[in-house]
User: What shape does this take?
Amino acid sequence: MATLVIVRHGQSQANLDNIFTGWTDVPLTAHGLKQGVAVGHLLANKQINFADVHTSLMKRAIITANVILEQIKQDYLPIHKTWRLNERHYGALSGQNKEAVRQRYGTAQWKKWRRGFTDVPPALTTRQHDRRYDHLGVKVPLSESLQMTQRRLLPYWEDAIAPRLLDGKNQLVVAHGSSLRALIKYLDQIDDDQIDQVEVPNGEPIIYRFDAHLNVIDKQVLAKEEH
Assistant: This one.
């Protein structure tokens, strides 16, 4: 029986400022670092031995992963970094205050962009360049819906994570609110019109346990009150 733990990174500066972030590489706050430590304590109590760690190419996720590994004394583990676990790209909303966007476009549209599955935020007119993606041949998106995020995430799940779980190797994924919502939708088989009810808080581990055929047999959210 293999175990998967997924964790959203600790609080970022953009989270604190209530800003749409997307692929912008923002730092963790001091509180975000503490959340990473707290996650490590929670997982240390569970005594899960991981074989691999997977994270995005964004420093808020990478640093959170490193902090967690230090706390559980598994710093030696390989960390696999992939753009496929990046946060969804919020397009022209990136860098804008969420409340200001809500007031400008209305609550209904704001909710669709934030939590809907198929709605695509306004696109950038010019594609951003980031050298970290050059060698991958990946073009930075102009905007992404959650559905688009799921489409680019699932190949990584199928090629890099699922096979290791099938081999009985426990896996840790440290990523982002939207990319993890996309994965949860897939694992929990959530309908398109129900995914807007799913929220993934910063620094709150979710533990999945699977049978030999990778069917979910147990799911547990480690509440912050436990530490």
